[in-house]
């Protein structure tokens, strides 16, 4: 797990993205007798690490398990910290070859001999060689931007972490789904003055059943202000302007959390030659093997669903490793015999 690289080595498979799905792919490749490694621009489970420190998952521990390793938790719904500890233990158990803090700059070569060019955290250039690639990069790193004036101000955030810095301040939350509801409630409970703006007529119907009545009651009681069927038009240092059904409204504001969702790195995929299909920009791949239209490049996790990011989670993406490993074993074995 030291991440050291021998320039002459060639891996059977290199997994790009060291989240739970990427780990599952590397584990299944290892079980198939293949030499695998993972590369990630951040730490192990980088997206989970950047979730709010006190976050609770919407699912049960067993649905987050990979590699047939039980996930022990005293809670019906595990916490972010429990998940990080669990995935560290899994990585240790399987002695995964983790190459952390290496940003993928480009990929060259071809099926059977790819070269993945990366830059480490010290700016050093490294090239990893692999016969096959698995792209499991998720989508959490790329927010859906609003494209409005003032969005680049330092007070605007697309990720929510901790409520403490916003005590006794005016905070605007943009969005109507789970992340927006959770942020709004947490901020309000820790002393912020919270306003929600959502383009829908009410909070989204898919907000978790134990969260939805809570946020609706806070709005009903006037504890959290809400403007529905509304959009933020511009953001300034001390105010935001909202277009509401009754007209434009300018309110005082100290911070903005634009919880408007995220999307996969489509530019990275198309740069590899992966074709995007349909209006949802789903990447072309074989539904059985999960190999893309580019020979030797496989896709795993949420990126398979394109912009439909609410279809694949850890709970189902974790099974992609077995599909991919089965095809990898067959094709690499055939290549050796040939």
The helix content is 10-25%
Q: Please identify the structural class as seen in this structure.
A: alpha/beta
- Main pleated sheet: 7 strands, mixed
Order of helices and strands: EHEHHEEEEEEHEHEEEEEHEEEHH
Q: Which residues form runs of ≥5 with pLDDT under 50?
A: none
Structure description:
24% of the residues lie in helices and 25% in strands. The chain has helices at 20-31, 46-49, 80-94, 178-189, 212-220, 266-271, 314-317, 320-337; strands at residues 11-16, 36-39, 98-99, 102-110, 113-120, 125-135, 156-157, 170-174, 193-198, 225-228, 231-235, 239-244, 247-252, 255-258, 276-277, 282-283, 297-299. The protein has two domains: 11-142 and 262-337, FAD/NAD(P)-binding domain (3-Layer(bba) Sandwich), CATH 3.50.50.60; 156-258, FAD/NAD(P)-binding domain (3-Layer(bba) Sandwich), CATH 3.50.50. Strands 1, 2, 3, 4, 5, 6 and 17 form a seven-stranded mixed beta sheet that branches. The longest helix is centred in the last third of the chain and has 18 residues, at 320-337. It is elongated. With 338 residues, the protein is of the alpha/beta class.
């Amino acid at each position: 797990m030291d991440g050291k690289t021998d320039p002459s080595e060639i891996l059977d498979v290199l997994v790009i993205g060291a989240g739970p799905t990427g780990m599952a792919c590397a584990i299944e490749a290892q079980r198939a007798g293949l030499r695998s490694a993972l590369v990630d621009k951040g730490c192990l489970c980088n997206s989970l690490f950047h979730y709010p420190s006190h976050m609770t998952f919407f699912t049960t521990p067993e649905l987050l398990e990979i590699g047939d390793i039980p996930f022990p938790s005293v809670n019906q719904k595990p916490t972010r910290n429990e998940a990080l500890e669990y995935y560290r233990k899994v990585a240790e158990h399987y002695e995964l070859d983790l190459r952390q803090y290496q940003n993928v700059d480009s990929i060259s070569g071809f099926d059977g001999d790819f070269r993945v060019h990366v830059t480490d955290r010290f700016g050093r250039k490294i090239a990893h060689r692999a016969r096959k690639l698995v792209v499991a990069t998720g989508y959490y790193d790329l927010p859906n931007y609003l494209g409005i004036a003032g969005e680049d101000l330092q007070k605007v955030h697309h990720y929510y972490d901790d409520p403490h810095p916003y005590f006794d301040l005016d905070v605007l939350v943009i969005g109507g789904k789970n992340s927006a509801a959770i942020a709004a409630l947490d901020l309000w409970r820790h002393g912020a003055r919270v306003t929600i703006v959502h383009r829908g007529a009410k909070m989204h119907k898919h907000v978790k059943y134990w969260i939805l009545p809570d946020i609706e009651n806070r709005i009903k009681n006037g504890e959290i202000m809400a403007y529905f069927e509304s959009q933020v038009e511009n953001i300034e240092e001390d105010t935001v302007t909202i277009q509401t059904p009754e007209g434009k409204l300018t309110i005082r504001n100290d911070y903005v959390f634009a919880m408007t969702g995220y999307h996969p790195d489509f530019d990275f995929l198309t740069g590899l030659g992966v074709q995007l299909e349909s209006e949802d920009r789903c990447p072309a791949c074989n539904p059985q093997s999960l190999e893309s239209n580019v020979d030797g490049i496989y896709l795993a996790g949420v990126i398979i669903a394109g912009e439909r990011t609410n279809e694949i989670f850890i709970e189902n993406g974790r099974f992609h490793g077995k599909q991919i490993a089965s095809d990898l074993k067959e094709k690499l074995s055939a290549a050796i015999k040939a």
